[in-house]
Automatic annotation (TrEMBL):
The lineage of its organism: Bacteria, Bacillati, Bacillota, Bacilli, Bacillales. Keywords: 2Fe-2S, Dioxygenase, Iron, Iron-sulfur, Metal-binding, Oxidoreductase. It holds the Pfam family Ring_hydroxyl_A. This is Aromatic ring-hydroxylating dioxygenase subunit alpha. Residues 39-149 form the Rieske domain.
Amino acid sequence: MEQSVVIGKGKIRSTLKGELYTSPEIFELEKKYIFAESWLFVGYEYEVATPGQYITTKVQDENILITRGKDYVLRAFLNVCRHRGATLCSEPSGKTGVFRCPYHSWSYGLDGSLRGVPKSSDCHEELVNNDTYGLEEVHLQTWHGMIWLNFSENPQPVEQQLDSQIMDRFGELETFARYQIQNLRVAHSKTYDVKANWKIIVENFQECYHCSAIHPELTAALPEFRSGIGTQNQPGLGASFNQDVEAFSISGKGNRPMLKGLLPEDDRLYYGITIVPHVFINLTPDHVITHRIIPINSERSIVICDWLFDPEEMAKPDFEPMDAVELFHRVNEQDFEACQWCQENMRSKAYKNGGILVPIEQHVSKFYDYVLESIGLKVE
Ligand code: FES
Ligand SMILES: [Fe+2]
């Protein structure tokens, strides 16, 4: 695959070819070799804090049930009854002692084992006494209070995938850990339906060349973003707030204390972090924003964005997150509209051989290498 063009004096890398953003076959390869082999972010540990609490979600075409057992172990299962395949649990969240299938009433324990089959089945004893008919388990690990799943047979430890990317971003692990995401709670969440390939959304988050053109509110808060140089690819660097900005909010006002655990040098800084394949984490002094991309098909993705705060602040009667929410909500809308501008032309003859990464965007090519190597296409 040709990945570079000659412009001026130097060789400048081209973007991926248009078909990489439209082809259902490529999308299937990405699902198989990237998403099925990676740890994927699906929720927060506090949502399933006590035995019997559960959440359900959909990942990689699979319905998933996540629950905590009586032994306090957190487990994820395919949310599929082993009898005739009905969705076992349809509620988005709840608490129960047993999962009973709505179709013929097979029931499963919190550990996924088959516990009950109606006696009218004739073979209920054989079924219940046989461990093979329990729910199919999916690998689950937590990382900073976030729940991650992995569909591969023998996944690497979650830290291998995630800590290595924190190291790339900060050069150490302590700064990120100080934000103590495990102690924060979601105060607001928004879901965006984006008509764009997941890679266009990742590429967009990784470059700030577009910031001065489409993000007036963001560049007002973080003036160095006007230069087009984000801080994501400068290890350890955060972007400083504009001098008259008190908080990362649409008004620039705010009087929440810094998150517990932060140091004075963390004040008035914003950090954006990409965790491939599908998560962005944004750190600010008084809240954290997470994005997770859920690829739907080669030309459509769902993005869930959560705004997390200190629960002690959330409990105060005057807690008001929307000033903060509005800032990144506008950034999201601006970004996703731009992603769609591109997606609609990925089938154009003009993009048959891709576009051009200008020097300021060159770091995106690491992401291209990761994608191409993962799906087995040659990188030149
Ligand atoms: S499909 Fe679940 S009990 Fe029949
Ligand atoms: Fe952006």
